[in-house]
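Open question from group meeting: does this chain pack into something compact, or does most of it stay loose? Before anyone orders reagents, we agreed to write out a predicted structure and look at it together. Recording both the input and the output here so the notebook holds the full record.
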Amino acid sequence: MSIHTATRSKHSKPLMVSHVRTMQMNDYVQVVAGSPDAKYIAAALLDCTVKVFFMDSFKNFLSLYGHKLPVLCMDISSDGALLVTGSTDKNLKICGLDFGDCHKSIFAHADSVMAVQFLRHTHYVFSAGKDRLIKYWDADKFELLLTFEGHHAKVWCLLISNCGDFIVLGSHDRSICCWDRTEEPFFIEVYSLKEELPEEGAMEEKSKGKVAYFQPNVLMLGLSPSDFVLRALSNVHANDMEQTLLALPFSDALKLLSYLKDWTINPDKLWTLIATVLLHTHYNQLVTTPSARPVLSVLRDILYARVKECKDVLGLNLAAIDHLKQLMALKSDALFQDAKTKLLQIRAQHSKRIEATIESREEKQRKKKKNKSIEHAWI
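Structure tokens returned:
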């Protein structure tokens, strides 16, 4: 990370830039931000940390942690009190620059957060993400004030005017959108989801209390949405399944979880891998998202029973394998039992031969001694 200073020459109008100092970092620098009072400079590294240094001396002031994936954008408020960071993990973190404590971690977007910026002289924050949405936050009360929908693709960057009269957005759809501030007041609306959202492919008629299903879609091979998605996932290689599920945004992961209640009936145990990866990856978002509660309450009883069945099957298979191991251990020398008996017989015969040979030698020696004693007596 390097610092350059700009000076204006007396005899020429163009600005002159001179290199002042350089500091080596432990990892790649993703983004940098400076405080308006030129007191602090913050650097976000590839290792998901944010380092805050004093601008004049480059001494380390704070080290901020908490993001699970690298930080892509950040900004410091005009009064230098707050630092907001947006990350690939779809979260916004609001930290205080006095002690470096995290005031709030907000699950802000359904995909990576690409840009954040404070409104000048306020603690209001704009954020833009790959989910095509722009959101307006209150960093003191940690509330979502407004949501803008204007782009048809990922939003890469945003710019707020100094007076806060307008905001400019740049997107992957090859367009630039400008939003002007109006004098019309707005009120924060609080929504509560009391009923489970209907599944795609079915339309609930509340007036009649009936459910009307759409005709089978030719593009989906005449299958229901859940069966078609299960068929598509079954074609994914087992080694690539986890990476495929990790690439899904949270909104699509929530839809897959809503399909699990139908997939558990399928004899194929693919749903176990899908449920494990999605619940482990999006645990924090699922706990804090009100719309996910009906889906989780339905899956709670179903998954518990299905997992218990799988556990019983695995226990039975392990017991059968242990029994087979014991049988194989008992019968491991069955092929060599005859050989052992024959070997014992051969050893016994060999020992008898040795004993007979020794006895015959001793008998001969005794006879020789006896004959010598008789001859000596005659002489």
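Observations to bring back to the group:
Helices lie at 225-234, 241-246, 250-263, 270-281, 283-288, 293-330, 337-378.
The radius of gyration is 40 Å.
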